[in-house]
Amino acid sequence: MATKRKVTVTIDEDLAEALERAGGVSGQLNQAGWDLVERRSRLERLRSLLDALDAEDGPLSDDPAEEDRLRRLLGGAA
Question: How far apart are CA 21 and CA 33, in angstroms?
């Protein structure tokens, strides 16, 4: 188990009430924090990959066909 440190945060009253009803503020904020850290880490790795691809092949064009191809490759997430 990770070492815990107590900190004080200020959040909206409605959010605090919703978190309390859903099982507790600390645990949910802790999980949300880790989720945010992971999401930012993935975005940074993606930016690095895209920068490397741009350096190798040049930036993406504005061609709609290329955008459609990328959308298919990414499973509709582009």
Answer: 19
Q: How many CB atoms lie within 10 A of CB 28?
A: 15
Tokens coding 75? 């499973």
Tokens 């092949």 correspond to what residue?
A: 57
Query: How many CB atoms lie under 10 A from the CB of residue 59?
Result: 10
Q: 29: closest CA among 45, 50, 6? A: 6
Rounded-to-integer distance, Cα 76 and Cα 14, Å: 35
pLDDT tens figures, 2-61:
899 999 999 999 999 999 999 999 999 999 999 999 999 999 999 999 889 888 888 878
